Amino acid sequence: MLTELNKVIDVEGLMLIEHESVGEPSLILMHYVSEFTKQKANVVYVSLNQSEEMLRTVCGKLAIRLDQNLFHFIPWKLVLSGGPSSSMNTFDWLEELILSKINPSMKSLIIFDNAMAFSSLSHDPTEAVQFSQRIRQTLQPGSITLLASGNQSYFMGFEDIASAYFRLKLVNRGSGKNVTGVLELEHHPTLFDATTQQHIYHYLVGERSLKLFMPGATQFII
Hints:
alpha/beta, Rossmann fold, P-loop_NTPase, KaiC-like domain-containing protein
């Protein structure tokens, strides 16, 4: 969907998306939902923020055709209400739930649209980090886990294992006519690179489109 983003980043593993508290992470989330859907890969969307109906409406407007056999939506209320037996850790149960939805022979996109949700399962942030590492190690090569948050503090411990970090900053609280905000991207070119590359773009979120372009550009890169 965002062609320019695909040109500069081709990594797997955990990616973090930081956005302002009055903003939201749809620019990046919908890009990867679109890309993995086109590749006929598993997509599991774990949501604290929205309903499945709302998500499907957004995907429809963006011409993203979700595969009923490959796309799975898990509302966070199911995680809280459906919970494990007393002998099982909640993160272990959530891991089993997610893995039960996917075809293990295919690569996967796992999305958590609000990292704050993890705090409802445990006060120990290391449990969420360990859970994320287990998921990452289980999935096929080329798989991605996306973790979004409007509060950077919920990324504590995740930064050290992330392959990419997106920051979305609104312009005029997102009300600009020609630009919604600024996207800052920092990523490791490969899993084995200690150094990082940085890129800055402007973006525009429309009702039926997502557009990315270089600061000062007169033409959108779509």
